[in-house]
Amino acid sequence: MNMHTPIVAGHREYGRKDAGGGQGGEAGGFREIMTALETRDREIKSFADKADSEIKSHGKILDDTKAALDKVLSESGQLAARLLELEQKSARRPGDGPARKSVGEQFTDTADFKALAEKGRGVARMQVKAVTTINSGTTGTGAAGSAIRPDRLPGILVPAERPFTIRDLLAAGRTASNALEYVQETGFQNNAAPVAEMALKPQSDLALGVKTANVRTIAHWFAASKQVLDDVPALQSYIDARATYGLLFVEEQQLLAGDGTGQNLLGLLPQATPFSAGLRKTGDTKIDTIRRAILQVRIAEFRASGIVMSPADWADIELMKDTTGGYIWSNPAINNGRNLWGLPVVDTNAMADDHFMVGAFNIAAQVFDREIANVEVSTEHADFFTRNMVAIRAEERLALAVYRPESFVHGTFDAE
Questions:
Q1: What is the rounded distance in angstroms from the CA atom of residue 7 to the CA atom of residue 5?
Q2: Taking a C-beta distance cutoff of 8 angstroms, is the pair 72, 43 a contact?
Q3: How far apart, in whole angstroms, are the C-alpha atoms of residue 136 and residue 148?
Q4: pLDDT 10s digit of each residue in the chain, 416 long?
Q5: Start-end of H helices in 218-310
Q6: pTM above 0.70, yes or no
Q7: Neighbour order of strands in the sheet with 389-402
Q8: 166-412 has which fold?
Q9: Are 391 and 381 in contact (CB under 8 A)?
Q10: What does the alpha-carbon distance between residue 296 and residue 306 come to, in Å, rounded to a whole number?
Q11: Handedness of CA 10, 15, 16, 19 (dihedral sign)
């Protein structure tokens, strides 16, 4: 229902006298009309509130309410006519300046009032605009806040993402099966020795075993509205990217520390050779410990190709100082890169603090992809088709083969 600002007629002070005498009767008449108008305004507001309530409850204004409201509005026309009559009696004196229409005059000039006077029935309304300061609020008179919209920056801000590096250290391969088998030497008794001419040669023993690396699946999925994906094309790409990131996040943890139970990969750490406590020396720093682990790999007849540790431990190494306060390994003014003893360092949160691993990653282990990370969209899930929803699935299948466990050395910086 369209309700207008109630008519509250302001008037000049009618206390002055003209040639005809006092104005006491006219002033009393003005007070009476103003009181009636104020009462009328309260009644209109009450009916407006009641009408709003009925619209919400019944979808329309009830007939009784509409009839009562029309009666109040009709009576307001009579009050306006009386107000006009009093204002005409109190006309300004000559020389007071240009005449300005009173509220009553403005009301009687409206088309609604003229139609009411001609037909003798109906409703007459006049909208009186209040003087208001326009502000940025969202409610109240003069509020323009709903017309103000914030600027939307393009795209979606992505949270911090872990750089994945363990796979980069390993040899890559492909498989078309659900499992890999490889023959591994499990024992070698070398009895080779110098022998005399025609003497019996010594016999050596060699033991071989078949190892199996099962292909495992890493997967997850999202539910989304088909309409949202159609209306926001960039959202599909964003979900695809986050879905793939989720796979790689778990892959890194599995390659490094999967325990091999259930559907977990058997990772590098569970198969690595423990760091030899006999190699430790009193006063060893973290830099010394890494060098001794490299030595252990070398003693096993392999050459280390990489080092893995946590970001906190790598920071400790970079911040190590000599007795004069100078940095031992790094120079803050120079980008030395991530390397130690000539080997690349992978600092990853997938490795626990105080732990490290050194190994011949390039020859001692290999990742086999059965199905590289991919994302698929389908409505074939539960009642998604009838609900206009889609399932977004991301998955990958891979296996990890560790050929030479002795070429990986895992330990802690602090002696246990």
A1: 6
A2: yes
A3: 8
A4: 444 434 333 333 333 444 344 445 555 666 777 777 777 767 777 777 777 777 777 777 677 777 776 776 667 667 666 766 666 665 544 444 455 565 556 666 777 666 655 655 555 555 555 555 666 677 766 666 666 778 776 766 767 677 778 999 999 999 999 999 988 877 778 999 999 999 999 999 988 889 999 999 999 999 999 888 888 878 888 888 899 999 999 999 999 999 999 999 999 999 999 999 999 999 999 999 999 999 999 999 999 999 999 999 999 999 999 999 999 887 888 877 889 999 999 999 999 999 999 999 999 999 999 999 999 999 999 999 999 999 999 999 999 999 999 999 999 998 76
A5: 226-231, 233-257, 268-271, 286-299
A6: no
A7: 171-174, 365-378, 389-402, 216-225
A8: Major capsid protein gp5 fold (3.30.2400)
A9: yes
A10: 14
A11: positive
Residue type at position 416: E
Q: What angle do CA 288, 294, 214 make, to 5 degrees?
A: 130
Q: Which residues pair with 343 in a beta bridge?
A: 340
- Residue identified by tokens 């490094």 is 256
In one-letter notation, the amino acid at residue 88 is Q
